[in-house]
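The records we work with from here on pair a chain with its fold. Taken together, the tokens spell out the fold as the letters spell out the chain. The record below shows the convention in full.
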Amino acid sequence: MDSSTWFTLPFIDEPLASVTHAGNGKDADLVIEFATGRRMEFGVSHARVETGDGIIVEVRPYDDATLTITYTGSGLTLRRGRIHFTDDERWLAEFLADAHDWVESGQRTLGYVVHAELWLGSTSGTSGVGS
């Protein structure tokens, strides 16, 4: 995927409460909960999360066909993050504009299903991904 088609999340090193990936192979959401109580959510068709030391990963059943994966840890931060809208490149400009509005307005949910890549770190660990 061309790096110009990715939207970089601007929340670098903001303290997080948790990151949760919940759903199944066809319908899943990624929720970033900040230590301030702010919450950002978007649908994901593919998610990749890399972590550093001190990150706890908890996998729980949500129901008979769904999992919830939650990342927590003392001093949890988003070291880097980006999302990519893959459905149709003709909609890329609209997606990028909407993603900027989503971040600026503090809306809770982005109205697109995306690929997401997150690099999480922890101030309590001895090393961090993406630092």
Remarks:
- Helices lie at 92-105.
- The first helix runs from residue 92 to 105.
